[in-house]
């Protein structure tokens, strides 16, 4: 009998000490805890450490409220952090956890979800204590392939919680199940006298209004009392001040993540994946290679619509448009005309051009619609008409086309009017307004209105450019000085180690202007993507590099800042990851400013010319690229107003009277209007009118070819419709081809070496 009694007691003891032990509701017969959680209490907690009125960060909406507490017990302060959760209807502890992890980008978790009747197992919690944004986990010491939380969650498919460590050792992080310890789950409802160990997991835990959930890590399976000091978490506020600093658009890791954008503020702090943070883990397409700001919108161009290997971020398409001030998504497009994405340029406040692997497509900015192919810009297949970068001058759009040259497009008619032949890789506009294209060991100057070219041979080095793995190229221009910069190359496929400077005014090269850092050791720093851009405000050069080699070497990425004298002033190393940075983009903070030399009122009795180039400026954009148009004319019977190819406003009296002429100045999508009040009188024949007698056009009316008769050399000719809009008409050898114009009345303005002439023409 005694023996039977002893066996019974041993069985009951074993049952109590093993079978009754639960971790988050999971029976754990494998654990021998120092004391059974079933019998534990919230030691030393006789009063509630924090009231709901003290909680600062509330997630969710509703009339019910609960407190969510995480206590790491890792020696880092503050330790026990508190969030608040609001809801209506029913909610579980798991739903509260996920809602907070999704909302607060500083907080992240490791979960094993869908684990049978016991629900989700919580394996780890982390918090970004130092604000660096490096929320990532390494598994089993593998730093080559980090795990990044999506909506605050890293998922695993087994109880391998002990194998994970935080990438940032300064973060709060605790995880475990079999070795390190475990996350114990304590709860308190309003009717409970104190905190109690939960017999169920977060999935089965039903919240009630006024309840508390405390996650308390039991390091080494030891008991740790619930803290008597709980710190309310301040609300997470995503960075929305994108005025002071610059963006770095990233290709990201092909086969693993879609494209992203980081923001480097003026203090040198890197805000990672700012678009994803602002848009619930949405991203761009695969291999994001280009970005530009036009007006109030940020246009991101990716080569493909989505990366099939990305399970963390929602892809956005080949074209993604965001608010440039907040990074909030506006629209996304998988299809941009059938090809892969290359570039984007704003044409006017209503229209843009999309550069693709099969040509150039119009884009309706007002209605956010991809338009049609611009004739002759494509090639008939997805990769037969590759377009590189594009620029908008005050008159035209210049676009690089693979193996063909630089296409010159009239933005008023969306037609290619000429091509500068050559195997160019990139095109830019200098401060003086000249356009420059580059290929291998040749730099070509293009007149922005006559398209005449001048060739400058690069003395000893080359320019690298590849169409097989296209990027926007390192050729870049200063807005503050008349200079160009690019990175040299050892060959057509291998980048060099020097930044080259070209003085546009003197036509001289400095091929050793600045050296790329990190050229010692086996693995050296190499430029990646476009690699080089000039800050329009500070005139500093921004250079991004990665590490040569293969595999994990590409996790090393740097951003260097050089002064305009070539001095290295700052170096920033990014958090280790395969960012593959593509291109730096600078905010557009200011609008164009019209100075007081622009008149508000004029009296005219003959043709009057106002040079608009001298009256307009923009501190963070190229003044030579500002587009000038006549927006409206209140009385065309009294006066006509047009803008010629030299950016001059031509006012011609048509009769007696007054008119208000509104001139619009568009600087990179930001527009200001100025009104000029004109009083016209035709009673006196002025000298310019006399000169008109020495100038004639014929035949008039005209069907196709218009002849110009004058004793002076004609420099350029522009044709405008009656609204003041310049139309497409090609001038050559004293003749103007108007065959493509619709029937109607037009104004022809011809500029010679001595005068400006204006004639009315009729197109039959």
UniProtKB/TrEMBL annotation:
Gene3D superfamilies: YVTN repeat-like/Quinoprotein amine dehydrogenase. Residues 697-762 form the Secretion system C-terminal sorting domain. InterPro entries: DUF5074, Quino_amine_DH_bsu, Secre_tail, WD40/YVTN_repeat-like_dom_sf. It comes from the Bacteria. Residues 1-19 form the signal peptide. Pfam families: DUF5074, Por_Secre_tail. Transmembrane segments: none annotated. The keyword Ribonucleoprotein does not apply. Keywords: Signal. The keyword Signal applies. This is Secretion system C-terminal sorting domain-containing protein. It comes from Chryseobacterium ginsengisoli.
